[in-house]
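Minutes, project huddle
Topic: does the predicted pose make sense with magnesium ion bound?
PN asked that the exact inputs be recorded in the minutes so nobody has to dig through chat later. Recorded below.
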Amino acid sequence: METQRTFTILKPDAVKNQSIGAIIGKIHEAGFSIRAMKMTRISIEEAENFYSMHTGKEFFERLTQFMASGPIVVMVLEKSNAIEDYRKLLGPTDSTKAPKGTIRGDFGTTTTQNAAHGADSVENAKHEWAFFFSERELF
Ligand code: UDP
Ligand code: MG
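Predicted holo structure (C-alpha coordinates), as shared on screen:
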Protein backbone atom coordinates (compact mmCIF):
# COMPACT_ATOMS: atom_id res chain seq x y z
CA MET A 1 0.00 0.00 0.00
CA GLU A 2 1.12 3.58 -0.66
CA THR A 3 2.30 5.68 2.26
CA GLN A 4 -0.21 8.00 3.81
CA ARG A 5 0.07 10.87 6.28
CA THR A 6 -1.94 11.58 9.38
CA PHE A 7 -1.97 14.37 11.93
CA THR A 8 -1.83 13.97 15.71
CA ILE A 9 -1.95 16.21 18.75
CA LEU A 10 -0.47 14.98 22.03
CA LYS A 11 -2.95 16.79 24.26
CA PRO A 12 -2.21 18.93 27.36
CA ASP A 13 -2.69 15.97 29.73
CA ALA A 14 0.02 13.96 27.96
CA VAL A 15 2.49 16.85 28.09
CA LYS A 16 1.69 17.59 31.74
CA ASN A 17 2.01 13.92 32.75
CA GLN A 18 5.40 13.68 31.03
CA SER A 19 4.04 10.95 28.74
CA ILE A 20 5.13 12.40 25.41
CA GLY A 21 8.41 10.46 25.26
CA ALA A 22 6.66 7.14 25.84
CA ILE A 23 3.91 8.00 23.33
CA ILE A 24 6.44 8.93 20.65
CA GLY A 25 8.23 5.62 21.38
CA LYS A 26 4.98 3.74 20.85
CA ILE A 27 4.34 5.65 17.61
CA HIS A 28 7.78 4.68 16.30
CA GLU A 29 7.38 1.04 17.41
CA ALA A 30 4.11 0.93 15.45
CA GLY A 31 6.04 1.82 12.28
CA PHE A 32 5.18 5.50 11.82
CA SER A 33 7.84 8.01 10.83
CA ILE A 34 7.64 11.60 12.02
CA ARG A 35 7.49 14.12 9.15
CA ALA A 36 6.87 17.23 11.31
CA MET A 37 6.81 17.95 15.06
CA LYS A 38 6.60 20.89 17.49
CA MET A 39 5.49 21.92 20.96
CA THR A 40 2.99 24.75 20.82
CA ARG A 41 -0.33 25.91 22.26
CA ILE A 42 -3.79 26.86 21.03
CA SER A 43 -6.18 29.53 22.33
CA ILE A 44 -9.75 28.72 23.32
CA GLU A 45 -10.94 30.33 20.05
CA GLU A 46 -8.55 28.13 18.05
CA ALA A 47 -9.72 25.04 19.96
CA GLU A 48 -13.36 25.99 19.19
CA ASN A 49 -12.43 26.27 15.53
CA PHE A 50 -10.46 22.99 15.49
CA TYR A 51 -13.39 21.12 17.06
CA SER A 52 -16.16 23.13 15.34
CA MET A 53 -17.97 19.91 14.31
CA HIS A 54 -18.71 19.39 18.02
CA THR A 55 -20.13 22.92 18.64
CA GLY A 56 -23.13 22.83 20.99
CA LYS A 57 -22.44 19.35 22.36
CA GLU A 58 -22.49 18.75 26.11
CA PHE A 59 -18.70 18.30 26.26
CA PHE A 60 -17.73 21.18 23.91
CA GLU A 61 -16.73 23.74 26.54
CA ARG A 62 -14.91 21.15 28.66
CA LEU A 63 -13.02 19.99 25.58
CA THR A 64 -12.03 23.42 24.29
CA GLN A 65 -10.97 24.66 27.77
CA PHE A 66 -8.88 21.51 28.15
CA MET A 67 -7.22 21.81 24.74
CA ALA A 68 -6.20 25.41 25.52
CA SER A 69 -5.06 24.60 29.08
CA GLY A 70 -1.37 23.98 28.37
CA PRO A 71 1.27 23.03 25.84
CA ILE A 72 0.56 20.43 23.18
CA VAL A 73 2.81 18.52 20.78
CA VAL A 74 1.66 18.38 17.16
CA MET A 75 3.02 15.91 14.63
CA VAL A 76 2.60 14.69 11.07
CA LEU A 77 3.05 10.92 10.91
CA GLU A 78 3.66 8.75 7.86
CA LYS A 79 3.12 5.06 7.19
CA SER A 80 1.00 2.89 4.91
CA ASN A 81 -2.67 3.14 5.97
CA ALA A 82 -1.67 5.84 8.49
CA ILE A 83 -5.10 7.33 9.18
CA GLU A 84 -6.78 4.04 10.09
CA ASP A 85 -3.74 2.49 11.78
CA TYR A 86 -3.18 5.54 13.97
CA ARG A 87 -6.84 5.58 15.05
CA LYS A 88 -6.37 1.91 16.04
CA LEU A 89 -3.20 2.75 17.97
CA LEU A 90 -5.11 5.54 19.77
CA GLY A 91 -7.94 3.28 20.87
CA PRO A 92 -11.52 4.42 21.54
CA THR A 93 -12.35 7.99 22.63
CA ASP A 94 -13.13 6.98 26.23
CA SER A 95 -9.77 6.21 27.85
CA THR A 96 -11.42 3.99 30.48
CA LYS A 97 -12.66 1.71 27.66
CA ALA A 98 -9.39 1.76 25.71
CA PRO A 99 -7.40 -1.52 25.80
CA LYS A 100 -3.93 -1.69 27.35
CA GLY A 101 -1.31 -1.14 24.72
CA THR A 102 -3.25 1.65 23.01
CA ILE A 103 -2.18 5.27 23.53
CA ARG A 104 -5.44 6.21 25.23
CA GLY A 105 -5.51 2.98 27.25
CA ASP A 106 -2.01 3.54 28.55
CA PHE A 107 -1.86 7.34 28.87
CA GLY A 108 -5.42 8.77 28.87
CA THR A 109 -7.56 9.08 32.00
CA THR A 110 -11.09 10.12 30.93
CA THR A 111 -13.16 10.68 27.77
CA THR A 112 -12.04 14.30 27.53
CA GLN A 113 -8.47 13.85 28.79
CA ASN A 114 -7.55 11.06 26.41
CA ALA A 115 -3.90 11.87 25.68
CA ALA A 116 -4.02 12.29 21.91
CA HIS A 117 -6.00 13.31 18.83
CA GLY A 118 -5.86 11.52 15.49
CA ALA A 119 -7.23 12.84 12.19
CA ASP A 120 -10.13 10.80 10.78
CA SER A 121 -9.55 11.35 7.03
CA VAL A 122 -6.79 12.31 4.58
CA GLU A 123 -8.56 15.63 3.88
CA ASN A 124 -8.99 16.52 7.54
CA ALA A 125 -5.39 15.54 8.31
CA LYS A 126 -4.06 17.97 5.67
CA HIS A 127 -6.36 20.73 6.83
CA GLU A 128 -5.32 20.19 10.46
CA TRP A 129 -1.55 20.11 9.90
CA ALA A 130 -1.69 23.15 7.58
CA PHE A 131 -2.81 25.22 10.57
CA PHE A 132 0.33 24.29 12.53
CA PHE A 133 3.11 23.73 9.99
CA SER A 134 4.62 25.74 7.17
CA GLU A 135 6.10 24.01 4.10
CA ARG A 136 9.65 24.27 5.53
CA GLU A 137 8.59 22.43 8.70
CA LEU A 138 7.30 19.41 6.77
CA PHE A 139 9.77 16.70 5.80
N1 UDP B 1 -14.94 14.22 23.90
C1 UDP B 1 -15.46 14.40 25.18
N2 UDP B 1 -16.66 13.77 25.50
C2 UDP B 1 -17.36 13.01 24.62
C3 UDP B 1 -16.81 12.84 23.32
C4 UDP B 1 -15.63 13.45 23.00
O1 UDP B 1 -14.87 15.08 26.00
O2 UDP B 1 -18.42 12.48 24.98
C5 UDP B 1 -13.67 14.88 23.54
C6 UDP B 1 -12.48 13.92 23.52
O3 UDP B 1 -11.33 14.62 23.99
C7 UDP B 1 -12.38 13.59 22.05
C8 UDP B 1 -12.76 14.91 21.40
O4 UDP B 1 -13.77 15.44 22.25
O5 UDP B 1 -11.08 13.14 21.69
C9 UDP B 1 -13.32 14.80 19.98
O6 UDP B 1 -14.41 13.89 19.99
P1 UDP B 1 -14.56 12.77 18.87
O7 UDP B 1 -15.91 12.18 19.04
O8 UDP B 1 -14.20 13.36 17.54
O9 UDP B 1 -13.49 11.67 19.34
P2 UDP B 1 -12.10 11.20 18.70
O10 UDP B 1 -12.24 11.33 17.20
O11 UDP B 1 -11.03 12.11 19.27
O12 UDP B 1 -11.95 9.79 19.16
MG1 MG C 1 -12.97 12.86 16.02
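Observations noted during the meeting:
- Residues 3-137 form a domain with the Alpha-Beta Plaits fold (CATH 3.30.70.141).
- The chain has a mean pLDDT of 98.
No decisions taken; revisit at the next huddle.
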